[in-house]
């Protein structure tokens, strides 16, 4: 049975190693996406004009009035002191062609004192230029920049499946790391003095054992991030009732109908303020977005600059029908069924933000460790592959039966150092 598990671990590891190497390194970077992006692109983040800032709603009005091609789809309701206010935009329909205007940007940075656009970029563009680098890495982390095909987000599904394989492989790896009760101490040790293959082996096996629990959390949450609706929510609902997701439930949201109006952002913010007080939410509405294809507004409740949710289970969100103002649903951290809270905790765990700055430091370290485990696993596999090929060549050049009978008998195992025999057994 152990031999079969070794084979499974080997092929699961080879199949996912490159994906996990990329995901680990990019995850270590994007734990600090806002800080790194601001350091690389100060003109996109730092406001040019001193003075009192206009509200996000007023700035959105000015942007849309200045450029009728664009529709603001997401904006914070206030800018951080000294910073630009960054909005997401989409093209409106050109009445002459009945097709969307062609834009080469979907994110803008607005001077909060004047409403002037300081910078534009295509968030997530396949580009390594300074202005695009951090969004490029962020999108690479969970999609590999693979395109939609037949209405399917191939990259999201691929990385979700990689997470599932990684989850099962982590369980197998833990069992293989402890071949016997007598050898358990060696499964936690690192032979730094020997270096070379011995250290590579220890980094892969013992390193994985020391942080196994964290690896399982990251693997599970990566599946939840990419495949929540098709995989995770159906499984969780087998054990606990889940409140319907207002964004991914066709019984709740709907596409716009002919003649539908759209309530103003101001009206939705007013409804959000009233709903927030009714729910005893301590923070005010902090950001609003409009999903045109769902005809839905979403409002997040957070202090200025805390749109990611820097501690705990994240920010509350509520959703309204854009035509009627009907409340469609809400997601209040810490409230709901056990299944609801399980789903709420996935992003805070995956990003490390559940523990604040300390959690982000930890998740960066785990990302680097995942890359190291992937690289050392490939090195071990390549070494053993070369060894098997060498053994096959030697077998073809083996002496005849009579020559073998005349030769002294020496077992290969007797020539192996004790630790090498253990490594062969483990792998």
TrEMBL record:
The chain crosses the membrane at residues 12-32, 154-178, 209-229, 361-382. InterPro entries: PepSY-ass_TM. Residues 399-427 have a biased composition (Basic and acidic residues). The keyword Transmembrane applies. It comes from the Bacteria. Coiled coil: none annotated. This is PepSY-associated TM helix domain protein. It comes from Paraburkholderia graminis (strain ATCC 700544 / DSM 17151 / LMG 18924 / NCIMB 13744 / C4D1M).
């Amino acid at each position: 049975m152990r031999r079969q598990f070794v084979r499974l671990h080997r092929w699961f590891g080879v199949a996912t190693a490159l994906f996990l190497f990329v995901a680990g390194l990019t995850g270590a970077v994007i734990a600090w996406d806002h800080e790194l992006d601001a350091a690389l692109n100060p003109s996109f983040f730092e406001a040019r004009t001193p003075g009192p800032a206009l509200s996000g709603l007023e700035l959105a009005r000015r942007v849309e009035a200045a450029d009728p091609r664009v529709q603001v789809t997401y904006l914070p309701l206030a800018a951080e002191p000294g910073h630009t206010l960054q909005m997401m935009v989409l093209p409106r329909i050109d009445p002459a062609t009945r097709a969307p205007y062609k834009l080469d940007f979907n994110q803008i940075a607005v001077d909060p004192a004047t409403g002037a656009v300081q910078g534009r970029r295509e968030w997530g563009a396949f580009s390594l230029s300074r202005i695009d680098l951090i969004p490029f890495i962020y999108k690479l982390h969970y999609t590999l920049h693979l395109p939609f095909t037949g209405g399917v987000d191939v990259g999201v599904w691929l990385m979700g499946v990689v997470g599932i394989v990684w989850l099962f492989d982590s369980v197998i790896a833990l069992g293989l790391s402890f071949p016997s009760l007598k050898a358990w101490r060696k499964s936690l040790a690192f032979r730094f003095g020997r270096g070379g293959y011995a250290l590579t082996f220890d980094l892969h096996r013992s390193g994985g054992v020391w942080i196994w629990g964290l690896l399982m959390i990251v693997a599970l949450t990566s599946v939840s991030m990419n495949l929540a609706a098709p995989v995770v929510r159906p499984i969780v609902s087998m054990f606990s009732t889940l409140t319907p997701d207002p964004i991914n439930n066709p019984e709740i949201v709907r596409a716009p109908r002919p003649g539908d109006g759209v309530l103003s952002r101001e009206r939705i913010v007013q409804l959000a303020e009233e709903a927030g007080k009714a729910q005893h939410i301590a923070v005010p509405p902090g950001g609003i977005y409009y999903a045109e294809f769902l005809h839905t507004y979403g409002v997040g409740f957070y202090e200025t600059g805390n749109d990611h949710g820097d501690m705990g289970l994240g920010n509350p969100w509520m959703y309204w029908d854009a035509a009627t103002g009907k409340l469609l649903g809400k997601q209040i951290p810490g409230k709901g069924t056990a299944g609801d809270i399980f789903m709420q905790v996935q992003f805070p765990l995956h990003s490390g933000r559940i523990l604040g700055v300390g959690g982000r430091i930890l998740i960066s370290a785990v990302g680097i460790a995942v890359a190291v485990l992937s690289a050392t696993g490939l090195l071990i596999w390549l070494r053993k592959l070369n060894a098997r090929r060498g053994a096959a060549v030697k077998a073809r050049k083996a002496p005849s039966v009579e020559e073998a009978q005349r030769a002294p008998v020496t077992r290969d195992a007797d020539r192996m150092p004790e630790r090498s025999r253990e490594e062969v057994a483990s792998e």
